[in-house]
Structures are given as structure tokens and as C-alpha cells.
Specification:
- It is a single chain.
- The chain is of the alpha/beta class.
- It contains 23 helices and 14 strands.
- The chain has helices at about 5-20, 30-60, 65-70, 90-95, 100-115, 135-145, 160-175, 185-195, 215-225, 240-255, 300, 320-330, 345, 350-360, 420-430, 445-450, 455-460, 470-475, 480-485, 490-495, 525, 530-545, 550-570, and strands spanning about 205, 235-240, 260-265, 275, 280, 280-285, 330-340, 365-370, 385-390, 400-405, 440-445, 480, 505, 510-515.
- A nine-stranded mixed β-sheet has the order 3-2-1-6-7-9-8-10-11. Strands 12-14-13 form a three-stranded antiparallel β-sheet.
- A hairpin with a 2-residue loop joins strand 4 and strand 5 (about 280).
- Helix 1 (about 5-20) packs across helix 2, helix 2 crosses helix 3 and helix 2 (about 30-60) runs parallel beside helix 10 (about 240-255).
- The radius of gyration is 32 Å and the shape is globular.
- The mean pLDDT is about 90.
């Protein structure tokens, strides 16, 4: 191929597949078939590339073409790619005409027979559903996927397929709405969480509610950004939903991760990562568990064989602290974890308060970070991040950092989003472990005890502005109080700007709007380029003080005189 495939081209190409599938199928089902077909095509093209390399090797040793091809048919020749048997190769499936779904199912079964690490991944997708996938529709999909070859040499960047796959997962989460939250966490939130727990090369990282695998992939990206070898990171995860588990496995493979240990099953009821009858331990644990999961398995947890609940079991209709305790139980002695939680975890009482108390008294909690509302699929409520560290630095012992990032975000039509600066702000304050007015506070355990182990973020780092000031004299006589402009909170908004572009000084105590500003709308013209918050502030002053009560009284009296004069002219006394 003369021109390499770009990410934008591949994303558009993959999303066009959804147009082919529209009809008898719900949009939420598209992802399984698009992911499955992409994976089939990629496996076949990668194998074909590897096979040509094997043939070339044997030809270079003097073997004939026939001998080289015979030797290249041995699956033992392929240790760095998946072996694709004859019936599953793209050349043999792209032109299928009849009973295509059944043949595709047989092809996926054949691939799994030869590749144990793919067991259950492809056969979770049933192509043979006649009322949804007709032969004509499957022909169109096969023809569509024949447009591009998907070898490594065809891509303009090394991780092109993985990036395109992540794009698809996000698109499907967007279209799935509430259900999207079951398999996808917004990448900005994931990046923030990964940046806070800071995985490094050589570590073992675990996600007990892996979803589509985005958190584990981002830990690799963190290593790449910091110049470390992403291959020197062991990834582990567990996911209960079978289709989501298959998506996660494919996500790993398409990112070039072939040794990730992703298991199926209910993490709380049946944890899969066990060694010698004990839970495996990890250097980093990261997760976005389902919020306030009902029927999470409290009855079984009361007699947990792994001793995961030393601080008690949470209520049967809220499993948040069950996941958190499972994560703590899987941390090694120097381990660190980050978890997304609903705010209720921070202040709910009864058994949940006792669990919080135990975690706090054992000095495991390092930071509580409040996020803006509207970031997550399926819920508009704000969430928080908990950073738990079994090896807190000496200067952080007996303390918890609270960060309130609820006001720092970019507003979106359907969802809000964390900007790069918002993420950087959280990381900078967390790394410095410092107070910042109306944003963060380092709180001692004594203060938390005084607050009865309530971790409500606003109790410690409150972003709320002070009460709106009202100057009675200004309301009666007009004018904007100098003292109000000099208020600390107002000065933080104004950032030292020269207010003479809008105001003139009336006397020592009051400003007035410039004479040429005759309407509130004209304020913006005098504040060209100013921050919207500054414009809003001046418009508030206009509403509060521009027209005084005395002025209103005078205008009312004037209007009354005009009205009485008019009535007198009409003969009324």
C-alpha cells in the first residue's frame, strides 16, 4: 500500500459499519459485531504478514517455495501472533455467499481451538442470527471490511488499531446512554486516576471491574508518556458481563497486549485471581465499580473465605464499600489504589460509617477528590475519587487531602468533560499535598474524628462563594460600594483588573457606572475580552445598584403627576 492508513480514516471506516447494520438490530448490539469483524480481519491480516515472513525465512535457507509454504503451515512457527487456520482466513471468508453466519461461527470456533488465550472471546459473538443478520447484510459487512488491509506496515502510527478501538468503545457508550457506563469510563477521568496512582515499570496492576479494559490500557499509556517500557507491566482484571469481557480481551490484543490476565466472573462473589488459596496481591489497583450495587452478595460476604471485610460488610443494597475493601485486600504492603465512588460513600451512616472509620484509623486514605457532575454515562450525579495508600509517606501520615474540583470542567451538550488544565490542577495539588483556598485542604485525623468520620468534601474544601453582599445605602441612593470591590472573593474573580473601564469614582465610598453606559448590555462592550465571570459580576452590580430606590420613588411620583394631570384634563378631580 502506497499510502498509510490514518486514525481518522480508520475511525470513519469503522463507524460506517454501523450504517450497514441498521435495520432489525438495536444500536446497542452493533458493537459486538463490529468489534468481532474487526478482530477477525486483523487476526487474518496479521497472520498473513507473519506467514509471508516464515516463507521468506525458509526460502533464504535454500528451501523450495513448496517446502517453505508447507513448513509455514505449522502453527508452532507462530509465537508472536495468533495462528489462523485455513477456514478462518480472510481470503476464504470474504466471498462467502450462502449461510454466511454459520460459516463465520465455525471460523471463530476454529480460531479459538488453535489459540487457547482466545477461548470464549470470539464465540461470544453469534453471527448466525437470521432475523438480524441476513446473508446480504453479512456480505455487505465482509465487502466493507475488505476495503483496507490491517497489517502493521499499513498504519501511520504503531497503536492505530488500539486507538480506533477505543474510539469505537466511546462512540458506543455515547449511543448506549445509561448502559454505556457499564463498560466505559470517560478517558479523562481514567487518565486522572492513573496519574494519581502513578504505576511504574515492573508493577502488577489489577482492575476488579475491568469493563472494556480502558483503565488497564491507560496504565500502559502512562508508562509510555514517562519513557518507560509498557511491556514491563503485568495487567490483571476481572469482568462479570461476558460480552464486555470479550470486548476487554479484544481491546488488549488490538493494543498489542498479549499477556494480560483477564478473567470472567463476579469479583465479589467469585474472585478469580487466587494463588495458593489466597487472593493475589498487586502494586496498583484501579477501578470504577458499579455505583451502589444492589444484591451484591452481602449474605456470602458475612462469611467471606478470603477475609476481605475486616471493617464490616456494607448494606445489602449498596456494594460500594465491598468493592473498596476487596481492592484494599488485594494491595500488597506498598500498594496504592484509586477508585471512583458516588458521594454517598463519603457520609452514609450505620455500617458504612464503621467501615470508613476502620479505613481511616488504619491510616490508609490519602486523598478524597471531588469531581464535577455530569461526567459519567448513565448518571448526572457527581462522583469522587479515593486514593488509598498502604505505604503513605511520613509527611502524609495521620492526614487526608481533600480536593474539590466540582467547578472545573468543560460543559457539554450531553456530558461534561475534564479539560487538560483541570486534570493538571488536581495532580499538581495532590503531588504537593497542600492547601489551596476554596479548592483543597489537608485535614488531620483529629478533625475527621471530630466530624464523626464524615468525609463530605465541602465540609473541608468548600467552593461555595460567600453570601451575596448588599449595601443598604447604595440600594437607597445608588452607587457601587468600594468595600464590595475590595472584598477578597471579588478580587479573586477580578484578578486585579482596572475597573475604570466601567466605573468612575463618585466619592471615597462609592463608584458609579460611566455616564456613557446607559444599559446593562453596553457593559460587555467596555469589557471586551474579559472572562465571562467578570462580565457576570459587573452585570450583577448593575442589577443591584444602578437604579436606586430613591430614583424609583422619584420616577413613580413623576409618573403619578403625569397621570393626575391627564385625569384632570379629562374632568376628573
Amino acid at each position: 500500500m502506497s499510502q498509510k492508513l490514518t486514525l481518522q480514516q480508520l475511525e470513519s471506516f469503522l463507524w460506517e459499519t454501523a450504517d450497514i447494520l441498521r435495520g432489525n438490530m438495536d444500536a446497542s448490539e452493533f458493537k459486538d459485531y463490529i468489534f468481532g469483524m474487526l478482530f477477525l480481519k486483523r487476526l487474518s491480516d496479521a497472520f498473513e504478514e507473519a506467514q509471508e515472513g516464515v516463507v521468506a525465512h525458509y526460502l533464504s535457507t535454500g528451501k523450495s517455495q513448496a517446502e517453505a509454504e508447507r513448513l509455514a503451515s505449522d502453527e508452532d512457527e507462530y509465537d508472536s501472533t495468533f495462528f489462523v487456520p485455513e477456514r478462518a482466513r480472510w481470503a476464504n471468508i470474504k466471498d462467502l455467499k450462502h449461510d454466511i453466519g454459520a460459516d463465520l461461527n465455525k471460523a471463530t470456533e476454529a480460531i479459538e481451538e488453535h489459540n487457547p488465550s482466545l477461548e470464549g472471546v470470539l464465540i461470544s459473538i453469534d453471527f448466525n442470527i437470521k432475523n438480524k443478520l441476513s446473508d446480504k447484510k453479512l456480505q455487505d459487512i465482509l465487502s466493507h471490511f475488505s476495503t483496507y488491509r490491517l497489517r502493521n506496515e499499513d498504519f501511520d502510527s504503531p497503536d492505530l488499531l488500539g486507538s480506533a478501538y477505543e474510539y469505537l468503545i466511546k462512540q458506543f457508550a455515547d449511543s448506549a446512554g445509561k448502559k454505556g457506563g457499564e463498560f466505559y469510563t470517560p478517558s479523562e477521568v481514567v487518565w486522572l486516576l492513573v496519574s494519581l496512582i502513578k504505576p511504574t515499570a515492573g508493577m502488577k496492576t489489577y482492575d476488579p471491574t475491568a469493563g472494556s479494559g480502558g483503565m488497564l490500557i491507560q496504565t500502559r499509556n502512562f508508562l509510555i508518556k514517562n519513557g518507560e517500557n509498557p511491556q514491563n507491566l503485568s495487567l490483571y482484571g476481572q469482568e462479570m458481563n461476558l460480552n464486555t469481557w470479550a470486548i476487554c480481551k479484544m481491546n488488549m490484543f488490538l493494543h498489542g497486549v498479549f499477556n494480560a490476565d483477564i478473567r470472567k466472573g463476579d469479583t465479589l462473589g467469585d474472585p478469580q485471581h487466587i494463588q495458593s488459596g489466597e487472593l493475589m496481591s498487586f502494586d496498583r489497583v484501579i477501578a470504577n465499580p458499579p455505583f451502589s450495587l444492589k444484591k451484591w452478595g452481602k449474605d456470602t460476604a458475612d462469611n467471606d473465605p478470603f477475609g476481605r471485610y475486616p471493617y464490616g460488610t456494607p448494606p445489602k443494597d449498596a456494594g460500594d464499600l465491598a468493592f473498596i475493601q476487596h481492592m484494599i485486600a488485594t494491595l500488597n504492603a506498598e500498594g496504592k489504589m484509586g477508585v471512583v465512588v458516588p458521594h454517598g460513600v463519603l457520609f452514609r451512616g450505620s455500617s458504612e460509617k464503621e467501615i470508613r472509620k476502620g479505613i481511616l484509623e488504619d491510616d490508609l486514605l490519602e486523598a478524597v477528590i471531588g469531581l464535577p457532575s455530569g461526567l459519567f454515562y448513565g448518571t448526572g450525579i457527581p462522583a469522587a475519587l479515593l486514593i488509598i495508600n498502604k505505604n503513605k509517606p511520613i509527611d502524609r501520615k495521620g492526614k487526608v487531602l481533600f480536593i474539590n474540583g466540582e467547578l472545573e470542567y468543560q460543559e457539554g451538550k450531553n456530558q461534561n468533560k475534564l479539560r487538560d488544565d483541570d486534570i493538571a490542577h488536581v495532580i499538581q495539588v495532590y503531588d504537593a499535598y497542600q492547601d489551596e483556598k476554596r479548592y483543597s485542604k489537608v485535614v488531620s485525623m483529629d478533625e475527621i474524628r471530630e466530624n464523626d468520620y464524615n468525609l463530605n468534601i465541602r465540609r473541608y474544601a468548600d467552593t461555595s462563594p460567600p453570601p451575596e453582599p448588599y449595601d443598604v445605602k447604595a440600594i437607597l441612593h445608588g452607587g457601587i460600594p468600594v468595600s464590595e470591590l475590595e472584598d477578597e472573593y471579588i478580587q479573586e474573580t477580578l484578578l486585579g483588573m482596572d475597573v475604570s473601564c466601567v466605573f468612575v469614582r463618585r466619592d471615597a465610598e462609592y463608584y458609579e457606572f460611566k455616564q456613557e453606559i446607559e444599559s446593562k448590555e453596553q457593559i460587555r462592550d467596555h469589557l471586551a475580552g474579559a472572562d465571562p465571570k467578570v462580565v457576570t459580576l459587573f452585570e450583577k452590580w448593575w442589577d443591584k445598584y444602578r437604579v436606586s430606590l430613591h430614583q424609583i420613588d422619584a420616577e413613580v411620583k413623576q409618573s403619578e403627576e403625569v397621570m393626575w394631570n391627564y385625569l384632570k384634563e379629562l374632568g376628573y378631580e
